Structure formats: C-alpha cells, structure tokens
Inverse folding.
C-alpha cells in the first residue's frame, strides 16, 4: 500500500477533545474517525488492525467447535419481555417505535435471540452440545462514552453462546472457553488475568472477566503476582497485602481494562423460551446455556494503551496493520526513488504486506515521526546513505538503534518482517 494513496491521513496535532490515549493516538494516526462520543469509524489502517483481531478470535472460536453466524441488531420488544430484560436494560438499550407501531430495541446482547432461534434446532440430546458465535455490532446508550474505543455506544462484539444437556457439560465447556480466551489474549500480547466477578443482569453465579492491568482501566482488581488469582473489587473480600487464597503469594491491587467475559447462564433463558431437549427416554429438560463475550474494538484500544510510548503506537506483531513500513528518503532524487520502488515490488512479490511511504512532499523528520506514530513493528529505510553501501536500514519500533543489511540479503530482511 502506497502511503501517498492511503485514505485517512496522520495529523501533527492531537485531537483537542480526547482524553484517552487510545482515542488520541488512533485519531491522530489516521486509524479511526470520531463521528460523536462513543461512535468511531474505522479507516483503512484501523480496519486492518480490527481484521487481524477478528481473525485471531475466529481461529480460536473455530478451534473449540464454534459455528459462526450473524444475527440482526433489530429486536422486537416481546422477545426481551420473556426474560424481563426490556425493562431491566431500559437505561442502556436504544428503544423506539417503528412506523407500524411496534416497539423495537437495538440489541445490547443476543441471549434472548439465540435461545429463541435454538428452539428450531435443538429437540434431542443428540443435538447437544452446540456452540455458535458471531462478530456483530452492538448498541448501548452508554452515559460514560469518554474512553475512546474502550467504551462505545456502537461497537463490535464477539459473542459465543453454548448449549448443553447438563450443568457438568456446561462447566467443562466453560473451562475450555476460558482457555481459548487466554490463547487469544496471549496471541495479541495482552497479559490478561482471569478475574472472578459478579454476573450483572446475566446470572447470580460467579463469572470471569479477563482484565489487563493498565492505568487507563476503569476497573480495580485484587490479584496475586505469583499465581495470577484475581478478583474484581466489586465482589472481592480481599485487601492489598493479604495472602492469596490460592497460594502463598501477596495480594496486590491495580486498575485494569476488561477485555472479555464468560458467563454460565444456567437454564434461565431456555425456560423463558421453552428451549427443551428430550433425553434417551423421551423425558424433557431445559437446555443449559453459556455466554462468552470479547470486544474487538476494546482489544484494539487496549493494545494501544498497553504498548504505546511517547512517540506513538507500538503494535504487537500479530495486530499490526502492515508487516513493515518502507520509508523512502529520496530528496526527490529519481535514482533513489527508483531503487525504493524496486525494493517495494520485491517485498510485495515475496508476500510481505508493506506500507510504502512514497510521499514526496514530506521531510525525513515528518516521515519518521509518522512511522513512530503509526507503530508498525519494523521500519525499513532506503536513502542515499543506505544505497552508498548497497544496503537498507532496519529499525524495530521498540528499539532505539538501527542496523544496515545488504540489499542482496533479501531472505534475512524478509525474515525480520
């Protein structure tokens, strides 16, 4: 991709109306555009990061047997009244009456929808267990939409729903889903702690949130540095300095960002919608359900909050919009420009995803500042200086020094990308 043609330009000045680091850097770097508080448009750079996140999520959900689907955001009032959540969620659900006079809600979540739809597919124990998931837009009338992509009014959510014949089977899958979540966050270089928490409007049981320690977080957790046991402050019976109930470690406290959550829903939703299955003897029982959520946009924001420095974003390799950032410092010298073009072609032909800074109007300082702001893990520079030694300059985003590598050592250069 040629940077001269990239839709969404970086800016020298930080957005004046933003406080959160992720909002400042993502807007300044040309990843997102703010439509209004809590509502962001993903521009090409941001969309590429989002797709990297979604791909990792899909791979791990598929690995535990998930089938992907896509549900409607428009939900009829009567569906939500079966569980009593039309009133319970009134403060955050966008509710309105359409032209036919029917009351409609924009889905904040999809437990009701899946419980209803599943009645068409689940009749027998032979139909269980079943796991379905989606990556879909959710809407919540968030009164505190001030943390960039971490707290939105319109946002993407990966929500997985599981259906089981017994509590024991639900418990077993709950553990599998938790392990899949740990793998997802590890692949994104986000050290998330499985944190005991309350169930909110979903369940009275203890649930688990996945929390990443960060001063930008809105939650406070108590956690053990030794075994990583963790509890949300809202349910905790711990205090800083206490002994860990799981090991001999000391309990610490910190602010954190919730990046995922998992819930054992029990049979509440199944009973509300008549979602029953027949066992081997024809006896009918309600289906046990679980619900498992991850916010891709929030993960993107968290990666910025955790990995950014004073110069800009520093993407983990697995989330970067491009593998490498090729910067041409030509001084409008046709010879240098031609060499840079040739090297760009070579990299792309070898399967490397490259953002090529071919902009002629930008100074070297402006190009380097943009490269640091955008945060691609590897920067390759071609200039009069590097070509004197028939080399290119390689610099990793999280390192201070650069190295020269001969252009002919293309395999070494590609291995660095």
């Amino acid at each position: 991709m040629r940077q001269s043609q990239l839709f969404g330009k970086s800016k020298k000045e930080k957005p004046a109306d933003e406080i959160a680091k992720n909002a400042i850097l993502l807007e300044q770097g040309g990843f997102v555009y703010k439509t209004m508080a809590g509502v962001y448009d993903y521009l090409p750079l941001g969309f590429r990061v989002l797709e990297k996140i979604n791909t990792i999520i899909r791979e791990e959900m598929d690995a535990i047997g998930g089938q992907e689907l896509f549900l409607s955001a428009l939900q009829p009032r009567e569906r939500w009244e079966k569980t009593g959540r039309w009133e319970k969620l009134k403060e955050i659900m966008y509710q309105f009456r359409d032209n036919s006079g029917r009351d409609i809600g924009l889905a904040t979540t999809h437990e009701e929808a899946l419980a209803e739809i599943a009645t068409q597919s689940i009749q027998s124990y032979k139909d269980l267990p079943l796991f379905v998931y989606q990556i879909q837009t959710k809407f919540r009338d968030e009164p505190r939409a001030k943390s960039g992509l971490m707290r939105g009014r319109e946002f993407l959510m990966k929500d997985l729903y599981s259906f089981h014949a017994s509590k024991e089977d639900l418990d077993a899958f709950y553990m599998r889903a938790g392990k899949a979540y740990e793998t997802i966050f590890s692949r994104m270089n986000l050290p998330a702690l499985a944190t005991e928490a309350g169930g909110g409007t979903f369940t009275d049981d203890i649930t688990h949130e996945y929390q990443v320690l960060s001063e930008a977080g809105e939650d406070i957790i108590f956690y053990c540095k030794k075994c990583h046991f963790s509890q949300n402050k809202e349910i905790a019976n711990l205090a800083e300095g206490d002994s860990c109930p799981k090991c001999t470690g000391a309990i610490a406290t910190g602010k954190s960002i919730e990046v995922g959550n998992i819930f054992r829903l029990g049979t509440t939703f199944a009973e509300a919608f008549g979602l029953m299955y027949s066992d081997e003897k024809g006896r009918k029982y309600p289906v046990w359900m679980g619900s498992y959520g991850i916010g891709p946009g929030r993960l993107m924001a968290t990666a910025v909050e955790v990995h950014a420095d004073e110069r800009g974003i520093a993407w983990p390799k697995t989330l970067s919009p491009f593998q490498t950032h090729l910067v041409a410092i030509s001084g409008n010298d046709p010879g240098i420009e031609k060499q840079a073009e040739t090297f760009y072609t070579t990299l792309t032909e070898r399967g490397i995803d490259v953002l090529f800074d071919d902009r002629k109007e930008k100074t070297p300082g402006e190009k380097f500042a943009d490269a640091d702001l955008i945060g691609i893990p590897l920067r390759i520079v071609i200039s009069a200086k590097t070509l004197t030694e028939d080399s290119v300059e390689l610099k990793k985003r999280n390192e201070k020094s650069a190295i020269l590598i001969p252009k002919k050592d293309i395999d070494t250069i590609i291995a660095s990308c």
Observations:
- Residues 262 and 292 are 4 Å apart (CA to CA).
- The radius of gyration is 25 Å.
- DSSP finds twelve helices and 21 strands in the chain.
- The longest strand covers residues 251-266.
